[in-house]
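Structure first, sequence second, as always.
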């Protein structure tokens, strides 16, 4: 991800993921771009309760699920969500694009849920989350596939580390669709108090039931970069937290595939950036200041290591730019902790 080119004073960041290879974070909220029975003018609405969503957007059904998505999200008790209604009978790709545009500068958005499977709409979703994340407004897009094949095809077409495609369909208030499952996953992520906690096996709220998948379908989905869920003994949970990024330059590559790792990277970069931003005013680009920055960043990385967000980090490098003496360069190298996906047990048994 390139550093944003800007003349505005501030703290900017970039990161490069290499495969094997205490800044305060503001809360992030979900945004829903979906069809609704009622589509009042105003673009994007801040909604605080499910009852408010019903009053604004009408009763949900399978053709207009915005209110149902809101109900699932409110199971996690967020302070608010952002809702962008699309007319359920006349909505077009242009309407979805307008909704995405209304969210572009919103720093409070951490996830955008989209109910459309149209390639043009999903491409616009991808553009939004990538552009916003490059501009220090890190967020993820959530799409859905109602069958294993549909979900796998959508994931392959997007191939993006900031997009999750969820499957199978979940149900609530008489509505059924994988976008409801995606809403529960997004709600779980945004409500996480411990970013180092693995998403694998994470319990999901807000859904009454989800459809059962065959083991063949599960293998297809996991191999395709689809965030797959299941229901067992009445509990609904994530099987494995994945992004749709499965290839780099057409070559299979799982470096970007773990959603847990992506969230850990964001957590570190946002924390370091926010910590330095508080101290930016009045800073002079002197050796003493750069040494101070190095110490502060090192302490922040130590905190992340102790919290289990990263497993290790290299010596922080802080130097003055050779091209502009008003620019201070801070170079980090750290290893995201990730999660254990599988354990193989080998036993030698003597009788």
């Amino acid at each position: 991800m390139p550093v944003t080119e800007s003349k505005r004073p501030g703290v900017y960041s970039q990161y490069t993921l290499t495969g094997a290879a205490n800044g305060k974070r503001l809360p992030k909220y979900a945004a829903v771009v979906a069809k609704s029975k009622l589509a009042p003018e105003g673009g994007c609405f801040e909604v605080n309760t499910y009852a408010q969503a019903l009053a604004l957007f009408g009763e949900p059904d399978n053709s207009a699920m915005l209110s149902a998505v809101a109900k699932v999200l409110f199971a996690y008790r967020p302070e608010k969500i952002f809702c962008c209604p699309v007319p359920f009978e006349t909505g077009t790709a242009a309407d979805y694009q307008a909704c995405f545009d209304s969210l572009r500068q919103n720093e409070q958005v951490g996830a955008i849920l989209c109910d459309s499977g149209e390639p043009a709409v999903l491409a616009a979703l991808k553009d939004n989350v990538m552009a916003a994340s490059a501009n220090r407004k890190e967020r993820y897009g959530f799409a859905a596939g109602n069958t294993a094949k549909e979900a796998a095809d959508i994931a392959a077409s997007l191939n993006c580390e900031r997009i999750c495609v969820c499957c199978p369909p979940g149900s609530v208030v008489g509505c059924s669709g994988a976008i409801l499952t995606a809403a529960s996953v997004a709600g779980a992520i945004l409500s996480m108090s411990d970013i180092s906690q693995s998403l694998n096996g994470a319990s999901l709220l807000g859904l009454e039931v989800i459809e059962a998948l065959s083991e063949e379908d599960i293998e297809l989905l996991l191999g395709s970069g689809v965030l797959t869920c299941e229901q067992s003994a009445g509990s609904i949970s994530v099987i494995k937290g994945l992004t749709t990024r499965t290839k780099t330059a057409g070559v299979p590559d799982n470096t970007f595939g773990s959603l847990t790792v992506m969230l850990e990277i964001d957590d570190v970069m946002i924390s370091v950036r926010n910590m330095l931003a508080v101290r930016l005013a009045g800073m002079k680009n002197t050796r003493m200041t750069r040494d101070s920055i190095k110490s502060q960043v090192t302490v922040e990385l130590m905190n992340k290591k102790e919290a289990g967000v990263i497993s290790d980090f290299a010596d922080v490098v802080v130097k003055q730019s050779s091209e502009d003496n008003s620019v201070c360069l801070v170079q980090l190298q750290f290893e995201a902790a990730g999660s254990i996906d599988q354990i193989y047990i080998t036993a030698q048994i003597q009788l």
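Margin note: The longest helix spans residues 259-279.
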